[in-house]
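re: ur question from yesterday

yeah so i grabbed the chain u mentioned. its 202 aa long if i counted rite. heres the sequnce exactly as i have it in my notes:
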Amino acid sequence: MRTTAFILFLTSFCLQAAEVKPKGTPGFVLRSPVVANGGALPREFTGDGDGVSPPLEWSGVPAGTKSFALIMHHFPHEGEAAKWYWTVYNIPAETKSLAKATKGIGVFGSNCINRSLGYAPPHSKGPGVKTYTLTLYALSSAPDLKVSPAQVNRDVLLAAMKDRTLGSAELSFTYDRTDLTTKEGGKDAPPEPAKEPRRQPR
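ran it thru and got these structure tokens back, copy pasting raw so excuse formatting
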């Protein structure tokens, strides 16, 4: 019962975020050595693998940037509010990349998938290709946040950056768990019965 209640709470919590589509900044580019924009995210970085955050790097930073923030989100269905999987802020201005499974750079905020601060790997329960978007924000100053990291969700961070965003860059990728969700739902075909070894004629 407690597990069910917690799942319902997370679902409600996730759907609080409103849709915000930042405008990309020409020349400001966010990329990853493990996945191209629009490509399929390797399983290592999902809930079916090691579940670690992918490496990122960027260039073409707007002049006057004093800090960066990063948000990863996914829209479950058209017209629905976003779910957020990763919020990071107070990334130093001299930073040009984040390593795989990064730690110790910036401050990790909440995600709406689990209780942990930091990256929540894609692990959709529904079949089909899902698209996830990482957005890097170049800021004229660090966001003014007066709450704990656990209270910094997507909406809170976006509001705190509203009047200090110099530009943004996006990287989108996909993940498809169709085969895995079919098996998890118990719809996979039953195993074939073992065949008796063929007897050799005497």
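noticed a couple things. The CA atoms of residues 30 and 58 lie 5 Å apart. also Confidence is low (pLDDT under 50) at residues 2-12, 16-21, 186-202.
anyway ttyl
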